[in-house]
Specification:
This protein is 70% helix and 4% strand. It is mainly alpha-helical. The N and C termini lie far apart (45 Å). It comes from Williamsia marianensis.
């Protein structure tokens, strides 16, 4: 099969989603041949993806047996969303100092596009609309490096899991509305509050989901409230 640029990154993204959503669990092996067949790719990009995930601490290599999913604790989830929130808040504060009326109108249009996707229930469009809103928003801050770090941190967010949750969609839409309004009024405290709200909500929803599928059998295991 012809190798295409970025294919290993796509495979890594697919596997991250499966791990973070609990579809494949700690202790389970990821078989390269089976994954390649499932994704209709050669084994090479799967191997490269697993090497990437090993470097991220998401899988471990067991000699002579292959790659196994690493532990994922409540504290891990809390840490991931805490880091995302810290980066996002800094970008939002910077945005508050530079955003124009035209840019606010653009964000409002993108938020309505998200609402349309939510109403239609089309998961891929919901994921795209949410991504586009934040992509445009984060570019306004003129902090390209910071935005890049945030983008990399959000790779561990199982977007499709959220896009299938209507309640999450309404929280995202409402938070965007309030964020835009806070920018218009120059209310930086509310800007920070609405930015943090999305990550706190995301962490809580993911923890509830992972608990509901029995990922954590020991309730005392690294219990942590999102920061």
């Amino acid at each position: 099969m012809r190798r295409r640029p970025g294919l290993s990154e796509e495979v890594a993204g697919h596997l991250r989603h499966l791990i973070m959503s609990g579809t494949i669990r700690p202790g389970e092996f990821i078989r390269m041949d089976e994954t390649a067949v499932e994704l209709e790719v050669s084994v090479t990009p799967v191997r490269e993806a697993l090497l990437t995930l090993r470097g991220e601490g998401m899988v471990n290599l067991v000699p002579h047996r292959g790659y196994v999913v690493a532990d994922l604790t409540r504290q891990d989830v809390a840490d991931i969303f805490w880091l995302q929130s810290v980066l996002a808040v800094e970008l939002a504060v910077r945005t508050a100092s530079t955003i124009t009326s035209a840019e606010l109108d653009r964000l409002a249009d993108l938020n309505e596009a998200l609402q349309d996707a939510l109403a239609a229930g089309r998961v891929s469009e919901i994921v795209s609309a949410e991504f586009e809103f934040h992509r445009v928003h984060n570019r306004i801050a003129n902090g390209d490096k910071l935005a890049w770090f945030l983008l990399n941190a959000t790779r561990y967010t199982p977007q499709e899991l959220y896009a299938n949750d209507p309640q999450w969609g309404q929280v995202a839409y409402d938070s965007h509305l309030k964020l835009i309004d806070a920018y218009r009024r120059g209310d930086r405290d509310e800007v920070v509050e609405q930015t943090r709200r999305q990550f706190t909500d995301g962490a809580e929803r993911l923890m509830r989901h992972l608990e509901s599928i029995g990922l954590w059998s020991d309730d005392a295991d690294n219990a942590a409230a999102p920061g």
